[in-house]
């Protein structure tokens, strides 16, 4: 049954891929043109009534019929799904910054590598929450809305780090809300999971970003100092563009 839910999630994931592969979908590793993919889903729906789902939602009758749930309220399940979406949003915010600073016309490879590392971390968080949702009998809902991926070449290093700090603070607040929701329904497992797996890391991320912001505030627009700042980051977070 878990595999079944995961397969449905893969279908939702394909919606996201649509943005990047110009009207093509991927399902089980195979690319389909939009029209072909919809036809494929219709075929599945006819074969098996369980596949009677819209492309971006799983029917409540399927979601609520999870007999393996123990003290896992729909409020907590929804909060975890909201967090999955937030981690995805954070990941793509950082990917956007990484692409921007790695671009040859801007070329801060150290900062680009730093944000690429953050992008990968957020994807990791998203995966941890998806796994947790499945373990508790919930259904991960992967809603892939449009994310503005246009590189903002005018963003300064200071602005980028400030934006990252705000993102991390928002993510932390949402994590705290999951804990509150879980405690209200006596779901101590979720409260402990979020606290131990995520909160300490959030505090470290906020601390690290704050340090960078303090340094950047000191450097102002000194190009040589900014070069040195980037060089230091490139040693700590080397990133290769090799394909
Ligand atoms: Fe995160």
UniProtKB/TrEMBL annotation:
<keyword id="KW-0560">Oxidoreductase</keyword>
<keyword id="KW-0409">Iron storage</keyword>
<feature type="signal peptide">
    <location>
        <begin position="1"/>
        <end position="16"/>
    </location>
</feature>
<comment type="similarity">
    <text>Belongs to the ferritin family.</text>
</comment>
<dbReference type="InterPro" id="IPR012347">
    <property type="entry name" value="Ferritin-like"/>
</dbReference>
<keyword id="KW-0732">Signal</keyword>
<feature type="domain" description="Ferritin-like diiron">
    <location>
        <begin position="70"/>
        <end position="220"/>
    </location>
</feature>
<dbReference type="InterPro" id="IPR009078">
    <property type="entry name" value="Ferritin-like_SF"/>
</dbReference>
<protein>
    <recommendedName>
        <fullName>Ferritin</fullName>
        <ecNumber>1.16.3.1</ecNumber>
    </recommendedName>
</protein>
<feature type="coiled-coil region">
    <location>
        <begin position="158"/>
        <end position="226"/>
    </location>
</feature>
<dbReference type="InterPro" id="IPR001519">
    <property type="entry name" value="Ferritin"/>
</dbReference>
<keyword id="KW-0175">Coiled coil</keyword>
<keyword id="KW-0408">Iron</keyword>
<keyword id="KW-0479">Metal-binding</keyword>
<dbReference type="InterPro" id="IPR008331">
    <property type="entry name" value="Ferritin_DPS_dom"/>
</dbReference>
<dbReference type="Pfam" id="PF00210">
    <property type="entry name" value="Ferritin"/>
</dbReference>
<comment type="function">
    <text>Stores iron in a soluble, non-toxic, readily available form. Important for iron homeostasis. Iron is taken up in the ferrous form and deposited as ferric hydroxides after oxidation.</text>
</comment>
<dbReference type="InterPro" id="IPR009040">
    <property type="entry name" value="Ferritin-like_diiron"/>
</dbReference>
């Amino acid at each position: 049954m878990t595999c079944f839910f995961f397969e449905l999630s893969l279908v939702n994931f394909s919606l996201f891929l649509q943005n990047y592969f110009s009207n093509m979908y991927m399902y089980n590793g195979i690319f389909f043109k939009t029209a072909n993919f919809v036809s494929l889903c219709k075929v599945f729906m006819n074969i098996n009534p369980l596949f009677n789902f819209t492309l971006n939602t799983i029917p409540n009758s399927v979601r609520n019929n999870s007999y393996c749930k123990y003290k896992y309220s729909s409020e907590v399940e929804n909060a975890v799904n909201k967090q999955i979406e937030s981690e995805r949003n954070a990941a793509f915010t950082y990917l956007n910054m990484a692409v921007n600073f790695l671009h040859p016309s801007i070329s801060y490879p150290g900062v680009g590598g730093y944000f690429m590392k953050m992008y990968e971390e957020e994807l990791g968080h998203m995966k941890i929450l998806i796994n947790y949702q499945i373990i508790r009998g919930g259904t991960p809902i992967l809603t892939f809305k449009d994310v503005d991926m246009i590189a903002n070449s005018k963003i300064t290093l200071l602005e980028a780090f400030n934006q990252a700090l705000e993102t991390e603070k928002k993510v932390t607040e949402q994590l705290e809300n999951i804990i509150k929701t879980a405690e209200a329904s006596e779901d101590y497992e979720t409260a402990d999971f979020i606290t131990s797996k995520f909160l300490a890391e959030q505090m470290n991320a906020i601390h690290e970003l704050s340090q960078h912001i303090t340094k950047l505030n000191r450097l102002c627009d000194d190009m040589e100092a900014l070069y040195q700042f980037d060089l230091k980051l490139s040693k700590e977070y080397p990133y290769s563009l090799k394909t």
